[in-house]
Specification:
inorganic diphosphatase; EC 3.6.1.1; Pyrophosphatase_sf; Pyrophosphatase; three-stranded antiparallel sheet; 0% helix; inorganic diphosphate phosphatase activity; mainly beta; Inorganic Pyrophosphatase
Length: 172
């Protein structure tokens, strides 16, 4: 995990749950601001912070408004959010997360979608074979992008693969 560790506070699936990040020296850091965007800029390899491991349902996200930006479960109308299962699968069919140090500007109208950004880091759907852990920082290569419009906002999804996946060299 490139020298990063995580510390859980409170019970999972609770409003109080938080996952804090530490650097190699044990200092608390922000996964949003302190983890570099690139794992290797010369090879276009990006860092990805895993928020939702494959086959899990809890809609987790980097808390951009909280101090140190821990990962917490998303809340809508006062209730914790979970994604629905799509038969025959359970939960997300990929590892889901974000590229650190990115942000979809809510004041910028995208020329392709005609909508402004969603005010969050750029999302990543990692399609490799490994089931990652929440808070894991992995190195990914980009395979493509998908623009979604969610409640009138542009929400870009980067489709990527972990560079350590046995099939990574076969996908471009």
């Amino acid at each position: 995990m490139a020298g990063y560790s995580v510390e859980e506070r409170a019970a999972p699936h609770s409003l109080e749950y938080r996952l804090f990040f530490k650097d190699a020296a044990g200092r608390y850091i922000s996964p949003f601001h302190d983890i570099p965007i690139y794992a290797d800029a010369s090879k276009n390899v990006f860092n990805m912070v895993v928020e939702v491991p494959r086959w899990t349902n809890a809609k987790m996200e980097i808390a951009t408004k909280d101090p140190l930006n821990p990962i917490k479960q998303d809340v809508k109308k006062g209730k914790l959010r979970f994604v629905a299962n799509v038969f025959p699968h359970k939960g997300y069919i990929w590892n889901y997360g974000a590229i650190p140090q990115t942000w979809e500007d809510p004041g910028h109208k995208d020329e392709n979608t005609g909508c402004c950004g969603d005010n969050d880091p750029i999302d990543v759907c990692e399609i490799g074979s490994k089931v990652c852990s929440r808070g894991e920082v992995i190195r990914v290569k980009v395979l493509g992008t998908l623009a979604l419009i969610d409640e009138g906002e542009t929400d870009w999804k980067v489709i990527a693969i972990n560079v350590e996946d046995p099939e990574a060299d076969n996908y471009n």
